Amino acid sequence: MIIKKSADEIATMRRAGHIVAKTLELIEKKIKPGVLTEQLDAAAEEFIRESGARPAFKGYKGFPASICASLNEVVVHGIPGKRRLQEGDIISIDVGAEVDGYYADAAATFPVGEISAEAQRLMDVTKSSLEDGIAKCVEGNYLYDVSHAIQTRAEAAGYSVVREFVGHGIGRAMHEEPQIPNFGSPGKGPRLQAGMVFAIEPMVNIGGYKVEILQDDWTVVTADRTLSAHFEHTVAITGAEPVLLTVL
Ligand code: MG
Fold first, then answer.
1. Which residues of 102-131 are buried (b: 16+ CB within 10 A; e: fewer)?
2. DSSP class of residue 2?
3. What's the pLDDT score for residue 240?
4. How far is the CA of 198 from the centre of ligand 1 (A)?
5. How far apart are CA 139 and CA 171, in angstroms?
6. In a domain, 158, yes or no
7. pTM of the full predicted structure?
8. Is residue 45 assigned to a domain?
9. What is the mean pLDDT of residues 158-182?
10. What is the pLDDT of residues 99-127, one digit of tens each?
11. What is the share, in percent, of the chain residues with pLDDT greater than 70?
Protein backbone atom coordinates (compact mmCIF):
# COMPACT_ATOMS: atom_id res chain seq x y z
CA MET A 1 0.00 0.00 0.00
CA ILE A 2 1.22 3.49 -0.84
CA ILE A 3 0.92 5.63 2.29
CA LYS A 4 -0.17 9.17 1.53
CA LYS A 5 1.17 12.01 3.65
CA SER A 6 -0.60 15.06 5.05
CA ALA A 7 0.66 18.60 4.42
CA ASP A 8 2.12 18.62 7.95
CA GLU A 9 3.97 15.37 7.32
CA ILE A 10 5.34 16.69 4.05
CA ALA A 11 6.47 19.83 5.87
CA THR A 12 8.45 17.67 8.31
CA MET A 13 9.95 15.73 5.42
CA ARG A 14 10.93 19.02 3.83
CA ARG A 15 12.91 19.87 7.00
CA ALA A 16 14.71 16.55 6.71
CA GLY A 17 15.20 17.15 3.00
CA HIS A 18 16.67 20.58 3.58
CA ILE A 19 19.29 19.05 5.89
CA VAL A 20 20.05 16.39 3.26
CA ALA A 21 20.52 19.08 0.60
CA LYS A 22 22.75 21.14 2.90
CA THR A 23 24.82 18.03 3.60
CA LEU A 24 25.33 17.39 -0.11
CA GLU A 25 26.33 21.02 -0.56
CA LEU A 26 28.86 20.69 2.25
CA ILE A 27 30.29 17.44 0.86
CA GLU A 28 30.60 18.89 -2.64
CA LYS A 29 32.85 21.63 -1.28
CA LYS A 30 35.09 19.04 0.39
CA ILE A 31 35.50 16.80 -2.66
CA LYS A 32 39.01 17.18 -4.06
CA PRO A 33 41.97 14.96 -4.89
CA GLY A 34 43.64 13.51 -1.79
CA VAL A 35 40.58 13.47 0.48
CA LEU A 36 39.59 10.14 2.07
CA THR A 37 35.98 9.08 1.66
CA GLU A 38 35.79 8.52 5.45
CA GLN A 39 36.56 12.22 5.91
CA LEU A 40 33.50 13.07 3.83
CA ASP A 41 31.44 10.71 5.96
CA ALA A 42 32.67 12.25 9.23
CA ALA A 43 31.84 15.75 8.01
CA ALA A 44 28.38 14.64 6.90
CA GLU A 45 27.57 12.91 10.18
CA GLU A 46 28.68 15.88 12.25
CA PHE A 47 26.63 18.28 10.14
CA ILE A 48 23.48 16.14 10.16
CA ARG A 49 23.60 15.71 13.95
CA GLU A 50 24.35 19.41 14.55
CA SER A 51 21.31 20.19 12.42
CA GLY A 52 19.08 18.25 14.80
CA ALA A 53 18.61 15.26 12.52
CA ARG A 54 19.74 11.65 12.59
CA PRO A 55 21.83 10.17 9.77
CA ALA A 56 19.35 7.66 8.40
CA PHE A 57 21.85 5.30 6.81
CA LYS A 58 24.02 4.79 9.90
CA GLY A 59 23.19 1.36 11.27
CA TYR A 60 20.53 0.72 8.62
CA LYS A 61 20.68 -3.06 8.14
CA GLY A 62 24.16 -2.74 9.64
CA PHE A 63 25.49 -0.09 7.25
CA PRO A 64 28.49 1.43 9.06
CA ALA A 65 28.39 5.04 7.83
CA SER A 66 26.20 8.12 7.40
CA ILE A 67 26.69 8.46 3.65
CA CYS A 68 27.24 6.10 0.77
CA ALA A 69 30.36 7.08 -1.20
CA SER A 70 30.42 5.30 -4.55
CA LEU A 71 33.43 5.90 -6.79
CA ASN A 72 33.57 5.39 -10.56
CA GLU A 73 32.37 1.83 -11.31
CA VAL A 74 30.60 1.65 -7.94
CA VAL A 75 26.89 2.11 -8.59
CA VAL A 76 25.56 2.56 -5.05
CA HIS A 77 26.18 1.62 -1.39
CA GLY A 78 29.93 2.27 -1.38
CA ILE A 79 31.23 2.26 2.20
CA PRO A 80 33.34 5.31 3.14
CA GLY A 81 36.87 4.36 4.19
CA LYS A 82 40.55 4.81 3.40
CA ARG A 83 40.04 5.24 -0.34
CA ARG A 84 41.62 8.51 -1.43
CA LEU A 85 39.93 10.61 -4.10
CA GLN A 86 41.97 11.04 -7.27
CA GLU A 87 41.83 13.61 -10.02
CA GLY A 88 39.45 12.36 -12.69
CA ASP A 89 37.27 10.23 -10.39
CA ILE A 90 33.53 10.66 -10.15
CA ILE A 91 31.91 10.03 -6.79
CA SER A 92 28.24 9.46 -6.03
CA ILE A 93 27.21 10.61 -2.56
CA ASP A 94 23.91 9.37 -1.12
CA VAL A 95 22.55 10.96 2.07
CA GLY A 96 19.51 10.23 4.23
CA ALA A 97 18.26 12.13 7.28
CA GLU A 98 15.48 11.58 9.77
CA VAL A 99 13.70 14.44 11.54
CA ASP A 100 10.91 13.81 14.06
CA GLY A 101 10.30 10.34 12.64
CA TYR A 102 10.25 11.33 8.95
CA TYR A 103 12.86 10.64 6.31
CA ALA A 104 14.35 12.30 3.26
CA ASP A 105 16.87 10.82 0.85
CA ALA A 106 18.94 12.33 -1.98
CA ALA A 107 22.07 11.64 -3.98
CA ALA A 108 24.30 13.30 -6.54
CA THR A 109 27.43 12.42 -8.48
CA PHE A 110 30.31 14.89 -8.30
CA PRO A 111 33.55 15.28 -10.26
CA VAL A 112 36.93 15.08 -8.52
CA GLY A 113 39.01 17.79 -10.16
CA GLU A 114 39.11 17.59 -13.94
CA ILE A 115 37.16 14.65 -15.36
CA SER A 116 36.84 13.15 -18.83
CA ALA A 117 34.21 14.38 -21.27
CA GLU A 118 32.72 10.89 -21.14
CA ALA A 119 32.30 11.01 -17.35
CA GLN A 120 30.80 14.51 -17.55
CA ARG A 121 28.30 13.38 -20.17
CA LEU A 122 27.27 10.41 -18.03
CA MET A 123 26.63 12.72 -15.08
CA ASP A 124 24.69 15.20 -17.22
CA VAL A 125 22.50 12.50 -18.75
CA THR A 126 21.79 10.87 -15.39
CA LYS A 127 20.79 14.19 -13.86
CA SER A 128 18.57 14.94 -16.86
CA SER A 129 16.94 11.52 -16.56
CA LEU A 130 16.06 12.31 -12.94
CA GLU A 131 14.60 15.65 -14.00
CA ASP A 132 12.53 13.93 -16.69
CA GLY A 133 11.25 11.43 -14.12
CA ILE A 134 10.40 14.18 -11.62
CA ALA A 135 8.46 16.06 -14.31
CA LYS A 136 6.09 13.09 -14.49
CA CYS A 137 5.34 13.27 -10.74
CA VAL A 138 1.97 14.91 -11.09
CA GLU A 139 -1.45 13.79 -10.00
CA GLY A 140 -3.18 11.55 -12.53
CA ASN A 141 -0.04 10.18 -14.17
CA TYR A 142 0.91 6.54 -13.76
CA LEU A 143 3.88 5.41 -11.73
CA TYR A 144 5.69 3.88 -14.68
CA ASP A 145 5.37 7.12 -16.61
CA VAL A 146 8.13 8.22 -14.24
CA SER A 147 10.12 5.04 -14.89
CA HIS A 148 9.72 5.29 -18.64
CA ALA A 149 10.83 8.92 -18.78
CA ILE A 150 14.03 8.06 -16.93
CA GLN A 151 14.78 5.04 -19.11
CA THR A 152 14.07 6.91 -22.32
CA ARG A 153 16.53 9.71 -21.53
CA ALA A 154 19.30 7.35 -20.43
CA GLU A 155 18.97 4.92 -23.30
CA ALA A 156 18.69 7.70 -25.90
CA ALA A 157 22.22 8.67 -24.83
CA GLY A 158 23.42 5.10 -25.35
CA TYR A 159 23.56 4.27 -21.64
CA SER A 160 21.74 1.68 -19.55
CA VAL A 161 19.70 1.92 -16.36
CA VAL A 162 20.35 -0.42 -13.46
CA ARG A 163 17.52 -2.94 -12.95
CA GLU A 164 18.29 -4.47 -9.57
CA PHE A 165 18.14 -1.26 -7.53
CA VAL A 166 15.21 1.10 -7.75
CA GLY A 167 13.60 4.16 -6.23
CA HIS A 168 11.02 3.91 -3.46
CA GLY A 169 8.26 5.49 -1.47
CA ILE A 170 9.48 7.33 1.62
CA GLY A 171 7.97 8.81 4.77
CA ARG A 172 7.95 7.33 8.25
CA ALA A 173 10.30 4.70 6.87
CA MET A 174 13.19 5.24 4.51
CA HIS A 175 11.84 2.58 2.19
CA GLU A 176 8.10 2.37 1.69
CA GLU A 177 5.99 1.08 -1.14
CA PRO A 178 6.00 1.42 -4.06
CA GLN A 179 9.22 0.37 -5.71
CA ILE A 180 10.02 2.82 -8.50
CA PRO A 181 12.02 1.16 -11.26
CA ASN A 182 14.08 3.31 -13.59
CA PHE A 183 12.62 1.42 -16.55
CA GLY A 184 9.10 0.46 -17.56
CA SER A 185 6.14 1.00 -19.83
CA PRO A 186 4.15 4.25 -19.69
CA GLY A 187 0.53 4.11 -18.62
CA LYS A 188 1.20 1.24 -16.19
CA GLY A 189 1.29 0.97 -12.42
CA PRO A 190 -0.69 2.86 -9.80
CA ARG A 191 -2.16 6.31 -10.50
CA LEU A 192 -0.26 9.09 -8.76
CA GLN A 193 -2.20 10.95 -6.09
CA ALA A 194 -1.52 14.03 -3.97
CA GLY A 195 0.26 13.07 -0.76
CA MET A 196 2.44 10.36 -2.25
CA VAL A 197 6.14 10.96 -1.66
CA PHE A 198 8.83 9.21 -3.67
CA ALA A 199 12.60 8.92 -3.64
CA ILE A 200 13.41 8.80 -7.35
CA GLU A 201 16.93 7.68 -8.09
CA PRO A 202 18.22 6.71 -11.52
CA MET A 203 21.47 4.76 -11.55
CA VAL A 204 22.89 4.98 -15.06
CA ASN A 205 25.83 3.00 -16.49
CA ILE A 206 27.97 3.78 -19.51
CA GLY A 207 28.06 0.05 -20.30
CA GLY A 208 25.58 -2.73 -19.55
CA TYR A 209 22.93 -2.61 -16.85
CA LYS A 210 24.17 -5.64 -14.93
CA VAL A 211 25.69 -5.19 -11.50
CA GLU A 212 27.57 -7.27 -8.92
CA ILE A 213 27.78 -6.99 -5.17
CA LEU A 214 31.30 -7.13 -3.69
CA GLN A 215 32.33 -9.33 -0.78
CA ASP A 216 31.57 -6.65 1.81
CA ASP A 217 27.89 -7.39 0.96
CA TRP A 218 27.24 -3.69 0.31
CA THR A 219 29.28 -2.29 -2.55
CA VAL A 220 27.39 -2.54 -5.85
CA VAL A 221 29.58 -2.29 -8.96
CA THR A 222 28.85 -2.45 -12.67
CA ALA A 223 29.47 -6.00 -13.89
CA ASP A 224 31.58 -4.66 -16.78
CA ARG A 225 33.30 -2.10 -14.50
CA THR A 226 32.21 0.86 -16.63
CA LEU A 227 31.38 4.15 -14.93
CA SER A 228 28.05 4.65 -13.19
CA ALA A 229 26.29 7.81 -11.96
CA HIS A 230 23.43 8.30 -9.48
CA PHE A 231 21.13 11.25 -8.83
CA GLU A 232 18.21 11.22 -6.41
CA HIS A 233 15.60 13.56 -4.98
CA THR A 234 12.71 13.09 -2.59
CA VAL A 235 9.63 14.39 -4.39
CA ALA A 236 6.09 15.04 -3.13
CA ILE A 237 3.09 14.75 -5.41
CA THR A 238 0.75 17.58 -4.51
CA GLY A 239 -1.17 18.30 -7.68
CA ALA A 240 -0.11 19.80 -10.97
CA GLU A 241 3.52 20.45 -10.00
CA PRO A 242 6.05 18.07 -8.42
CA VAL A 243 7.48 19.46 -5.18
CA LEU A 244 11.12 18.69 -4.41
CA LEU A 245 11.77 18.17 -0.71
CA THR A 246 15.55 17.65 -0.85
CA VAL A 247 16.43 21.21 -1.80
CA LEU A 248 18.24 24.13 -0.15
MG1 MG B 1 16.88 6.14 -2.00
1. bbbbbbbbbbbeebeeebeebbebbbbbbb
2. P
3. 84
4. 9
5. 18
6. yes
7. 0.98
8. yes
9. 98
10. 999 999 999 999 999 999 999 999 999 99
11. 100
- Please check the confidence at residue 180 and state whether its pLDDT lies above 90: yes
Q: Is residue 112 part of a domain?
A: yes
How far, in Å, from the CA of 100 to the mean position of ligand 1? 19
Number of domains in the chain: 1
Supply the DSSP symbol for 247.
Answer: -
SS3 at position 37: helix
β-partners of residue 103 are: 98
Angle at 146 between CA 141 and CA 150, to 5 degrees: 155
Q: Give ion ligand 1 contacts, CB < 5 A.
A: 105, 199, 201
Interacting residues of 207 by C-beta distance below 8 A, sequence separation 6+: 160, 222, 224, 225, 226
Q: What is the mean pLDDT of residues 19-43?
A: 98
Half-sphere exposure of 70 (CA within 13 A, CB side): 31
Residue 2 covered by a domain:
no
Residue 242 CA, ligand 1 centroid: distance in Å: 17
Query: The domain that contains 67 carries what CATH number?
Result: 3.90.230.10
Domain range for 64 is: 7-244
Contact call for residues 122 and 204 (beta carbons, < 8 A): yes
Q: How far is ligand 1, taken at its centre, from the CA of residue 106, in Å?
A: 7
CB within 8 A of 104, min separation 6: which ones?
13, 14, 16, 17, 19, 20, 96, 97, 170, 234, 245, 246
CA of 167 to the centre of ligand 1 (A): 6
User: Given phi > 0 = left and psi -120 to 50 = alpha, else beta, which region is 142?
Assistant: beta
pLDDT in tens, 41-75: 999 999 999 999 999 999 999 999 999 999 999 99
User: What was the pLDDT predicted at 169?
Assistant: 98
